[in-house]
């Protein structure tokens, strides 16, 4: 604790949970229907004049045994969620609930294990070592997958006058991840082109308690009963998941050999890699890639020209798309960080206090008692106006030069962007890969095109992006 922190006044945590059971239901309806996710957290922050407060967080009854939480929405208090000496993350990954292990082969996978559980370090070591061993394949595989995306994009624009990016992006992301871990194209297996469709359903069934469909002709209470009140069953997905599992199991021989050397069962390791590839990576890219194109597209031609100049100059002088060329592209990297800041692919972080702990916001201290649930809403924490100037604006060069030190306040990966994942923490093992792929997407795009126009809107998860035109590179 710094001396300035120790001088902050100790304040009671404002807010309340309402009536038993009914308070949680009311807050759930506010979250999904009456206020929306962002409005739910902002309104309480403003009402209590505090960035630390009490509220029921979804899904509540009967999907989650507990809904009472202490909510954090500022950049200073948020990192308590990353301090594994003070918080326990047993079964906390999606929020305050945990989907049935039926979705994951009967195993509690690495994301649901606390760092105190021995198997967590073993699995995290396997993930980190596998990604390290595959790092030379990242760039060539992704460029190949991107080339196919551009072919389909131009074909759709030519045929239809527009191209829906999300489906193209999903197909590209799955193709890349499958070829990375399985060393073959999904088209060479029984999956053919079904992988993204299967994973979309699998992810949806697990995240349904946090999703609103927004169907105009379905009353809210019916959707709430179906999606948010009880867990969706696994059996409709059983055959699809077996199809995914069988293909990964047959194709990941060398990786599963390494897992056995670490004392893991082959099938358990395979289920963990399906989650790493299919939920963490594919699910994250499903949100992140459209967000990246949405914000860059909305920024317009002036940003496009700056990116084009930086990217083409670096690639020409370094003789290709190499790590050294990428490292010269400070604006390109800043754009990726800014997208992750303003539109983080994972909005929620959850943990339970291991002990009584004092946390700090900008202006107060608060006591969180042992076993209380701590719930962080990341899109407000990374738009903290006391950290970021004009936090609601997309500022492309926000992290260029000396300002790059601000990445320590970008928390999208369940950790600070300035930190590296280790076996002893819960930070995403593929954190650096995601940033690299975002940079590569921009590089390949602006090597091929000068500018582009899009339309965008909201989806269940993230942004919906439709290309209206692209202007091919003139030089």
From TrEMBL:
For the ligand (heme), the binding residues are: 428
Q: What domain of life does the native source organism fall in?
A: Eukaryota
Q: Which Gene3D superfamilies match?
A: Cytochrome P450
Q: Which InterPro entries match?
A: Cyt_P450, Cyt_P450_E_grp-IV, Cyt_P450_sf
Q: Which cofactor does it need?
A: heme
Asked if the keyword Electron transport belongs to this entry, the reply reads no
Please give the Pfam families that the UniProt record associates with this protein.
p450 (PF00067)
Keyword list (alphabetical) reads: Heme, Iron, Lyase, Metal-binding
Q: Which GO terms describe its molecular function?
A: heme binding; iron ion binding; lyase activity; monooxygenase activity; oxidoreductase activity, acting on paired donors, with incorporation or reduction of molecular oxygen
- Example of a GO biological process term: fatty acid metabolic process
Transmembrane domains' residue ranges: none
Record's protein name: Allene oxide synthase 3
Q: Which organism is it from?
A: Nicotiana attenuata
């Amino acid at each position: 604790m710094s001396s300035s922190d120790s001088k902050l006044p100790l304040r009671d945590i404002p807010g309340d949970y309402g009536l038993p059971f009914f308070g949680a239901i009311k807050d759930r309806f506010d979250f999904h229907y009456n206020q929306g996710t962002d409005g739910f957290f902002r309104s309480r922050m403003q009402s209590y004049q505090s960035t630390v407060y009490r509220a029921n967080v979804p899904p509540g009854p009967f999907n989650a045994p507990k809904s009472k939480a202490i909510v954090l929405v500022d950049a200073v208090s948020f990192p308590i969620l990353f301090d594994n000496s003070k918080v326990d993350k047993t079964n906390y990954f999606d929020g305050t609930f945990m989907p049935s292990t039926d979705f994951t082969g009967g195993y509690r996978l690495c994301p649901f294990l606390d760092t105190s559980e021995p198997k967590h370090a073993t699995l995290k070591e396997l993930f980190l070592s596998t990604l390290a061993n595959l790092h030379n394949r990242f760039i060539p595989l992704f460029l190949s997958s991107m080339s196919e995306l551009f072919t389909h994009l131009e074909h759709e624009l030519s045929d239809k006058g527009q191209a829906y990016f999300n489906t193209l992006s999903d197909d590209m992301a799955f193709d890349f991840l499958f070829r990375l871990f399985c060393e073959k194209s999904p088209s060479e297996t029984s999956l053919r082109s079904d992988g993204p469709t299967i994973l979309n359903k699998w992810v949806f069934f697990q995240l349904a308690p946090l999703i609103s469909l927004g169907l105009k002709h379905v009353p809210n209470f019916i959707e709430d009963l179906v999606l948010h009140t009880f867990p969706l069953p696994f059996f409709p997905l059983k055959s699809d998941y077996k199809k995914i599992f069988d293909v990964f199991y047959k194709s990941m021989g060398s990786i599963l050999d390494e897992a056995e050397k670490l004392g893991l069962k082959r099938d358990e390791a395979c289920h963990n890699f399906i989650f790493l590839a299919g939920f963490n990576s594919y699910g994250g890219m499903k949100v992140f890639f459209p967000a990246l194109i949405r914000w860059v597209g909305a920024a317009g031609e002036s940003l496009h020209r700056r990116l084009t100049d930086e990217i083409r100059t670096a690639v020409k002088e370094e003789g290709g798309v190499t790590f050294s060329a990428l490292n010269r592209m400070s604006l390109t990297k800043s754009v990726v960080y800014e997208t992750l800041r303003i539109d983080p692919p994972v909005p929620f972080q959850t943990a339970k206090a291991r002990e009584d702990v004092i946390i700090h916001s900008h202006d107060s201290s608060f006591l969180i008692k042992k076993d209380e649930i701590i719930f962080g809403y990341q899109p407000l924490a990374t738009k903290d106006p006391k950290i970021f100037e004009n936090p609601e604006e997309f500022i492309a060069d926000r992290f260029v030069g000396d300002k790059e030190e601000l990445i320590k306040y970008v928390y999208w990966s369940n950790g600070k962007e300035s930190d590296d994942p280790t076996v002893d923490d819960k930070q995403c093992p593929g954190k650096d890969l995601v940033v690299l792929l975002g940079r590569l997407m921009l590089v390949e795009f602006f090597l091929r095109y000068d500018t582009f126009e899009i339309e965008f809107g909201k989806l269940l998860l993230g942004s919906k992006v439709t290309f209206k035109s692209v202007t091919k590179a003139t030089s």
